Amino acid sequence: MQIGVDLGGTKIEAIALDATGRELARRRVATPRAYAATIAAIEALVTQLEAATGQRGTVGVGIPGNVMPDTGLVKNANSAWLIGQPLGADLAALLQREVRLANDANCFALSEATDGAAAGADVVFGVIMGTGVGGGIVVHGRGFSGRNLIAGEWGHNPLPWPHPDEMPGPACYCGKHGCIESWISGPAVAADHQRVTGQALATPDIIAASEAGDDHALATRARFIGRSARSLATIINVLDPDIIVLGGGLSNVPRIADDIAAQLPAWVFSDRVQTSIVRNRHGDSSGVRGAAWLWPAS
Ligand SMILES: [Zn+2]
Predict the structure, then answer these.
(1) Which residues of the chain, if any, have pLDDT below 70?
(2) 73, 220, 266, 268: which sits with the fewest CB atoms below 10 Å from its CB?
């Protein structure tokens, strides 16, 4: 049995899968905003899943950050109380077994590559387009994290081929201007709509208005699709994955995969673009399922 834990900013979700990927049990709790309570909550969830199934499981945990391989300490987490903590070692001691940790975007990509929309593909780029913009790479069924643990982190590259009115671009929290995340995240799309139209609308409402034929919303949506296509074209130009799986809230925009794919030939350095662009299969469960697959089915 594989247990996956998705340690999110608002909730911790845990799932137990059998070797075929069937869900045996699932539990969730609100995320405590303190370190000791967080590891205690993860231990309690694992204990509950093992009591519910009557089995002992392997444990993988997806985190909103990374673990430095030399020190085992958490870095780059947007849940500040995790930063600098030996999360893997502490969980291993509590749970009496080795625990694997990975970035949540890498878990998303691993889930979709294992038994989701990218099952069977050799090189997978999994994209998170939500509150933030992240990504993960899976090669031959294994997550690829890179020397600096930033493989696939495309959100803080600059928007490619910017139009004059896209320079220097919005200020980003990372300290630079015009980052991809500052153009195509959920909040960024709403900010773009407000800059151009003066209307303050949430992104889901903008998308709904575009489906109803509203001209301003259609224009905002077209800018979002065009910027996403330009940004993904640079991923294809470097990594050349077999498939790109879209995840996060904006992957629910109707027809987004086909609309992005239609624009790629203008930007990809190839006379043909054979990369598949698809929506995810497991939706909100991808993070927790990918954490479970950090240990292969036995
Ligand atoms: Zn940035």
Answers:
(1) none
(2) 266
